[in-house]
Design brief:
mainly alpha, about 110 residues, about 0% strand, single chain
């Protein structure tokens, strides 16, 4: 259920695989989804506490090795984790106001990064 509603990216392995579970929880965190299962709450708390540090560290590694495209990709996802919005979403979505207006703006594609 969580996979269908809050995960815009493909999940390899599915929710039964440990990598798939982590991918679902990361996407759920960025999408601001809620968790109903008590067994996943502690895993989600651990991921939310560590995810920003991990993505920043990966960005620093890419930057120091001179990998321009990967550095840009990691920077976009660092911002996505910090703001809890996907790079393809409108920047005003981080404020949780006027979601119907934001959906219309995102459909038209009229926003500046």
């Amino acid at each position: 259920m969580l996979e269908r509603t809050s995960c815009p990216l493909e999940i390899k392995g599915g929710p039964s695989d440990k990598h798939g579970k982590i991918s679902i929880l990361i996407q759920l965190y960025i999408s601001r989804g809620s968790i109903d299962s008590f067994s996943l709450v502690s895993d989600a708390a651990y991921i939310s506490a560590s995810l920003a540090r991990i993505t920043r560290a990966l960005f620093e590694i890419c930057l120091r090795r001179g990998w321009c495209e990967m550095s840009l990709f990691m920077l976009e996802y660092c911002k996505a984790v910090d703001r809890q919005i996907w790079p393809h979403q409108h920047p005003l979505r981080q404020f949780d106001k006027g979601l119907s207006i934001l959906r219309k703006l995102e459909e038209r594609g009229k926003f500046i990064h």
